[in-house]
Amino acid sequence: MKLTILVHSAPYSSQAAYSAYRFTESALAAGHEIQRVFFYYDGVHASNGLSTPPQDEFDLVKAWQALIEKHELDAISCVSSALKRGIMDAREAHRYEKAAANLAEGFVLSGLGQLVDASLSCDRVVSFGA
Amino acid sequence: MEMTPKTLTFIARSTPYGSGRAKALLDMVLSAAVFDQNINLLFMDDGVWQLARDQQPGMIDAKDLSAALGALPLYEVNNVYVEARALHERGLTLDTLAVTAIPCDDAHITALIAQSDQVFAL
Q1: Is residue B95's pLDDT more than 60?
Q2: Distance between A125 CA and the closest CA of chain B, angstroms
């Protein structure tokens, strides 16, 4: 099955953010295709490269990065959600004259059209967030 | 290539200003509207508060979401539904809403979801 994953809650605030990761990992292991992973609303915190949990806790940002790299996933953080929450790539940092860029490697900033586009061409959209 | 339009149903379940969810869902609806698909927008649970008339969110430095709802027909989003029970439970009535919405019971909501290709809820 071709799946689109929508994540709209934040790591460490909501279990759903972690469940989204585990579901994606399991779906891939079961042979399903992941059309796109779209991080929206508070979900964009999963793409914050400055996220630094204590060493004995699960690092969800790193875990997503490893999964994205291994399976060459199309992982998009909603640009308007991300900018509001202080997550940006070098291009946006330059455009808004911010001191630094912090989008974690592997993630791409783009618009909601990417979610709609993916949801029109996949079998199922599976949403995580409460 | 011309594709058969899909039915996307968006379910608004959050209060308008208690979190960013109401605006986030509305942004999704407006983005989807430009793709020329069949769009349903359903207000359920606390989401029915988004439809209340005479909102004054300027007092808390927020943008008026009900004004954005008024723009839905311009985006050809005409299938706007509201959970009748949720309205009743909150002392709201159809004629006190900022926009026209079709009242739905549970069976109608079940059918809407069953007829949808994708469902999004926030």
Answers
A1: yes
A2: 6
